[in-house]
Each structure stands twice: as C-alpha cells, then as structure tokens.
C-alpha cells in the first residue's frame, strides 16, 4: 500500500535527527526547482527527495543484512559504508513505503554514487543533494553555478568535488562515481 505524501513525510522525518530532516527538506525544495527547470516530473522528484536518506541512520549491521538477504548490490559492502544507505533506501522505499515507481526507486538508489546512464530524475535528485540551500561545504557555490548551466555540468562539478575530497584524504573512490562522471562528460560532447 502506497503511503500518502504526508504519511511519507511523517514516517521519514521521525527516523532521523532534525538536522538531517532539514537537509531533506532542502533537497525536496531544490529537486522540485531543478525538475521544473530541466523538464523532469516535479512530483516524482519531491517523493524521491523525501525518501532519499530514509536509511541514512540505520545501524550498519542492519544495512548489511538487508543488502545480503535481498540480493542487493553486495559489491557495496567492500566500499565506504556511507554508500550503503542509498541502496537500502531504495529497497525499503518499495518494501516498507509502497513506492512502486521505478524512476523514483532508481533516483533514490543512485543518489550518492551516480551511475552510467543516469536518468533525468536520477540527475535531479543527485544534484539537489549537492546544492540544497543548507549545504555550505567549500566549492558548493561553483556547483550551484554549474547547476544553472545544465544538470550535467552541475553533476560533473559535484562529483569532481567528492572525488577531489576523497583523493585529498587518500580514501577509496567507488569506481561507479568516476564512470558516472566520465559518462556525463561524454554526454556533453555528444
Ligand atoms: N564515490 C564515492 N566513493 C567513496 N565514498 C563516497 C563516494 N561518494 C560519496 N562517498 C562518501 O559518502 C559520504 C556521504 O555522501 P552523501 O550521501 O552525499 O552524504 P551527505 O548527504 O551526508 O553529504 C561522502 O562524504 C563520502 O565520504
């Protein structure tokens, strides 16, 4: 059974700290603006944004169990745990919150890593996560400027900032993000 928008908001906001819910509200706002600007479905963008971090505060062991027990992408388990919540979030959005729309589920699933061949809605939600009004990390203004030019330019700037940060910290980069960035650059040149 699908939940109403209000029920979703209640269910999601009650399982995260106020600060993360404020971030989620910012992503909802930015996702709708980007959807309207670039021709995606703003209703789907809003629902995906509400749910994108639903699993962010799940205990690591529970995320691991959901990934293993349901045949989700187990490759993630050898990468940064911060990447797991997107995969788990997509799964629970469908199982626990009755979201059956595959575009919404995919936008949740790929909002952190990106993927090769990102859909319009994937791009909108992923970019909104970078530029929502509450974000104040170094370089966010550049990403916001690029987001005005195109979804692809905005996302390339976003992924570049994540990749640069990981490089500077000598951390492992999830390869799909590099492939996703390269794919976006190729899309600009086609
Ligand atoms: N491609 C990646 N490879 C490895 N770690 C990543 C990658 N993308 C994101 N991360 C890690 O996940 C963290 C959280 O990303 P994100 O889901 O955007 O969270 P938040 O909304 O808390 O900023 C990043 O700060 C980084 O540590």
UniProtKB/TrEMBL annotation:
- Classification via InterPro entries: Diverse_Catalytic_Enzymes, HD/PDEase_dom, HD_domain, YqeK
Reactions catalysed according to its record: P(1),P(4)-bis(5'-adenosyl) tetraphosphate + H2O = 2 ADP + 2 H(+)
Q: Which UniProt keywords apply?
A: Hydrolase, Iron, Metal-binding, Nucleotide-binding
Q: Which Pfam family, giving just one, matches this sequence? A: HD
Task: Give the EC number.
Answer: 3.6.1.41
Name the domain of life. Bacteria
Name under which the protein is recorded: bis(5'-nucleosyl)-tetraphosphatase (symmetrical)
What organism is this sequence from? Answer: Paenibacillus silvae
**Taxonomic lineage per UniProt?**
Bacteria, Bacillati, Bacillota, Bacilli, Bacillales
